Amino acid sequence: MVSVTVEFLGGLDVIVNKQRIHQVQIDEEGVDMKRLISYIADQMITNKNDVEVFLEDGSVRPGILTLINDTDWELEGGEGYLLEDKDVISFTSTLHGG
């Protein structure tokens, strides 16, 4: 089991009941970012029409900055990064309507 903090920032919280910070526990071993992204889409996004706000082609949509413990996820291995207890995963939308 892994327990992490997941943050939805930059207005992205609207897809998860307007709650910015979530404590997430996944009862599996070897949970990677790809699995967390799938968990968010399946379990946390309340209106399934909003999944496309977060995902494109099965991964985080371009324009959403993804950080693992304040470091760009690409530097940590992207979708292949294995989550550790107490990691903080932040998703920040850089896309703003106007």
Automatic annotation (TrEMBL):
The modification 1-thioglycine is found at residue 98. It is found in: Cytoplasm. Keywords: Cytoplasm, Isopeptide bond, tRNA processing, Ubl conjugation pathway. C-terminal thiocarboxylation occurs in 2 steps, it is first acyl-adenylated (-COAMP) via the hesA/moeB/thiF part of UBA4, then thiocarboxylated (-COSH) via the rhodanese domain of UBA4. It comes from the Eukaryota. CDD domains: Ubl_Urm1. GO terms for cellular component: cytosol. One of its GO terms (biological process) is tRNA thio-modification. There is a cross-link at residue 98 (Glycyl lysine isopeptide (Gly-Lys) (interchain with K-? in acceptor proteins)). Coiled coil: none annotated. Its main location: cytoplasm. Pathway: tRNA modification; 5-methoxycarbonylmethyl-2-thiouridine-tRNA biosynthesis. Belongs to the URM1 family. This is Ubiquitin-related modifier 1. The lineage of its organism: Eukaryota, Fungi, Dikarya, Ascomycota, Saccharomycotina. The gene is URM1.
